[in-house]
Input
Amino acid sequence: GEPATDPDLAVPDARWPLFAGRAREAGFASAHALPLRLRQQVIGVLNLFYSQPGALDPDDAQICQALADVATIGLLQERAARHQGLVAEQLQTALNSRVIIEQAKGVLAERLNLSMDDAFAKLRGHSRSHNILLSRLAHDVVNGSADITF
Output
């Protein structure tokens, strides 16, 4: 999780021989890599490429590391927001499935004169024995396209 630097890509360096050649071909003379870290975990790198050789002076290095830290926060917040959206979507899907299953239980209970528990047992049993998703079967029962006398 420490910064890595190559202040002169023209000087042979055993660490990055392929990179140095490609970077020089692209017009760069020096490269610096600053870690994007969350505590001790490195989640990425901020790369800095310069057209002139030279090391980062301490003030520039400090500013660039601050930018890397801000980028880390942005990446982590984006990941958290994406994860939160995925969880919300999964919960909504589960809720929607549960609603249609409850409706199907009511249909079966009324039509077959069953308790809600027995209606659910019939629904679940038919779903398993016919390898049909429970929510799909429930949808078909509610819409009248499934045989509810099973």
Q: What stands out?
A: The chain has two domains: 4-83, 84-143. The first strand starts at residue 4 and ends at 6.
